[in-house]
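Sat 14:20. Reprocessing the chain from the morning session after the first attempt stalled halfway. Input below, unchanged.
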Amino acid sequence: MRKRTTGPQILKQSKIKKVNDSSTVSTKSFPIDVKIKKDVVKRMPSEDRIETLTESIKYSPFDYQLYYRRGLLYFNLGKTSDALNDYSHSIKINPQFGKAYYARAELWAALKNKRLALINLEKAIELDASKGEGDLSDPPTF
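Finished this time. Tokens:
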């Protein structure tokens, strides 16, 4: 029988040898592929998915989509401060990422801050219209 594994796993590990100035060799283990199968991740509890994304962010700190996805999970758990930080960080990395503005608009709408919700929603629509993608069809409710 095959043993089933659950939870996040780093698919590959590799060893790297680094030669220092004094010609000594040190070996460090690091992940090569931090991609995780989507169906496994979807079955994980939100807290575990947050932990997985946090670990991925350590290896890819400039991947704006990782911050965005973790922000969505935080928002669904009611951790609005953490969600706001992640959405804002995603926007800081890629100011042209309309989905982060849209998510931030939803967050501000949930917090009853209509002014900031509207500002973010307008920016999301502006970016969406300029790309012609049309994926922001459900505006947040105020």
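The domain at 37-131 is CATH 1.25.40.10 (Serine Threonine Protein Phosphatase 5, Tetratricopeptide repeat).
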